[in-house]
Amino acid sequence: MNTNWTHPLEKQSVGKAFVSYLVPSILGMLVVAFNFIIDGIMVGHKLGSTALAGIGIASPVYTLFVAMSLWIGMGGATLYSTYMGKRDITTAKQIFTKSITIILLITMAIGYAAFTFKDQLVYALGANAETFPFAADYMNILLLFGFVFTIENALTIFVRNDGDPNTSMYAQITFAVANIVLNYVTLYVLEWGVQGVAIGTIVSASLALLVLLSHFFKKSNNLTFARFNWNTKLLGTIVLIGFPSFLAELGMSVFSVSHNISLDRIAGTDGVASFTVLNYIHGVVLLAFLGLASAAQPLISYYHGAKQLVREKQTIRIASRTALACGVILLLVVQWGAPYFVQIFGNFSTSVTDSAVYRLKIFTFAYLFMGINFVMSTYFQSVGNAKMAIWITAAREMIIMIALIAVLPSFWGVTGVWLAVPLSEMLVLMTIAVYYRKRAVSERRHGLTLE
User: Fold this and answer.
1) Model's pTM, two decimal places?
2) Nearest 10 degrees: CA dihedral of 263, 265, 267, 268?
3) How many beta carbons lie within 10 A of that of residue 438, not counting itself?
4) In sequence order, which residues have a C-beta less than 8 Å from that of residue 321 and are 6 or more positions away?
5) Smallest Cα–Cα separation from 64: which of 151, 172, 137, 143?
6) How many CB atoms lie within 10 A of CB 181?
7) 417: which residues sit within 8 A by CB, 6+ positions away?
8) Which of 136, 179, 341, 357 is most buried by a 10 A CB count?
9) CA–CA distances in Å: residue 383 to residues 224, 239, 387
10) In whole angstroms, what is the distance from residue 392 CA to residue 247 CA?
């Protein structure tokens, strides 16, 4: 244990520290998000709405790999920051080594196992005869080489938590710029179709990984590989703390699959295509909120480990207010610009365009609640209250959302599908408010500060 080492967070006010993490975190996420939108524009204009729908159907595979990297990566990085706050640098390094090793082994095993029944998997995700070829081409590449971006994604989190958010941002920018260039080349020059889009993703992730490796040559680096034993208690803590992040990303797969299946049944390929357009736009917002929560997480974990509870609470207040302000701004921007946002993805049929615009305006009311839910889930995860973090994530993206998708279309048809997410986010925020009210009563009654 090192008692003489001083973490950079000790030298900054909470507000300044939050901004120093927030700006590169959100910028990096937004660049990645706009990269996905440009992907959609390129595919939509070059290959049409059916190819776009095919990528949307296969996207849960990408999401699953990211979920695995976040599960162990966020769990390990959170615990890493906590031990850095405790000034136990040796254990922190062992946590880093163990996390990267587990991510590599698990994602390779899942990818190669799933590849053996890839065709059945494509149909299970909601493909039909029209969308199958595009979904299969995209998914096959991801299953074989997905481990590359899982390592890149996890290392981005660790580098950020090691006090270097700027390098994480540079890696994300590298990924985005490279992916745009490579997608143009594979689609318009080489004409490799959807398969080329998937190849571009893997190559871009490899380049971003090289940028992240530059952190290891800096004097401020604490991320060194260390010998470790398979301590089951420590491994269990990593898995438990990271599980809400896995659920959050897996919830995106549930979100995509449930909407694709419901819309294919109710509205056919046009309905799936309009949802895919919405999903590209929604992805920008999700990554913006994820960037905001990611900026707060290293601070909360460190302050919690260092037992600086006042700073911990200040971080939550700043992050929650920022999330609410972002939600209001995003709602207003999308309400005004929905027709323009939809049109940039291609010259679709009137039914696809009108459907996407109308339903996007309904859907975006979720942003009033979503950002705060992200922040609160991250807070509970960062302080070790995995039970509450799991509830928030599972309820908003699975339990309540799926129940609403199953029930609402009986009353409002396709509109009921689009209402499911806004209502789910609102109901979950209400449960958080109830939890806080009960916790405040308990604290006053017992004179305690609860985690």
Assistant:
1) 0.79
2) 100
3) 10
4) none
5) 143
6) 12
7) 259, 262, 263, 266, 405, 408, 409
8) 179
9) 25, 14, 11
10) 10
The answer to whether 58 and 138 are in contact (CB under 8 A) is: yes
Q: Which DSSP letter does residue 365 get? A: G
Give dist(CA 269, CA 123) in Å, integer. Answer: 14
d(CA 156, CA 208): 9
Contact 419, 413 (CB under 8 A): no
232-305 vs 147-161: helix axis angle to the nearest 10?
Answer: 40
What is the CB neighbour count within 10 angstroms for residue 227? 7
Please report which residue ranges of 7-88 form alpha helices under DSSP H. 14-47, 49-85
- The alpha carbon of 242 is separated from its chain's Cα centroid by a whole number of angstroms, namely 13
Q: Give me 404's structure tokens.
A: 């609403």
Residue 114: which residues within 8 A CB-CB, separation 6 or more? 61, 121, 143
Per-residue pLDDT 10s for the chain (451 aa) are 454 556 677 788 899 999 999 999 888 888 887 787 787 778 878 888 788 778 878 877 887 888 888 889 999 999 999 999 888 888 889 899 999 999 999 999 988 988 988 888 888 887 888 889 898 998 999 899 989 989 999 999 999 999 899 999 999 999 999 999 999 999 999 989 889 989 999 999 999 999 999 999 988 888 988 877 777 788 888 888 888 888 877 777 677 777 777 766 666 666 666 676 777 777 778 878 888 888 899 999 989 988 898 999 999 999 999 999 999 998 898 888 777 777 766 666 676 677 777 777 888 899 999 999 999 999 998 888 888 999 998 898 888 988 898 888 888 877 787 788 899 999 999 999 999 888 777 766 665 554 4
- The CA angle 69-301-206, to the nearest 5 degrees, is 30
> What residue has token string 């004179």?
447
